[in-house]
Structure formats: structure tokens, C-alpha cells
Amino acid sequence: MRYYRSDIGSYCCPQEAEFRILPVSIELCSSFYKLSANHHKDPFDRTLIWQALHQGCSLITIDKDIRKYTTEGLQVVW
């Protein structure tokens, strides 16, 4: 089992931190173009943003362009 450093300085496994692996559907991947804001040009990042918005998840990132999507309702951590 792998352990990761959390923001409080201790180590925990992803299951304890409530991380989830999300399935990616063809429907979701083929509809990310509907994302109204166009801050990010990378199609993979836009797909991650679209999925997070539709599944009510937060993204952990330091990417400044992704953070701009908070105006669309995206929750960003870090």
C-alpha cells in the first residue's frame, strides 16, 4: 500500500483521505466541448474540469488556468 504526505504533515493512504478513482465515460469525454469558459486550451485538462463539475468533485492543482474555472463552479484545492 502506498502512503502520501497530507497537508497536515502526516502520511495516509488515499482511501483514508477519501480519494476516489472516477470512471470516465465516453459520453462525458465527448461532451467537454460544452464547457462554456475557454481559459484552458489543453483538451485533457478541459475533460478533467468538465468531469469535476459534473460529478461535484474538487480538483487538486496549482494550475492557474484551471483555477480560473471557479467562476463556472469548479472547486479547486491548493
From TrEMBL:
The species this protein was found in: Dyadobacter sp. 676
Domain of life: Bacteria
The protein's name: PIN domain-containing protein
Domain PIN span(s) in chain numbering: 16-69
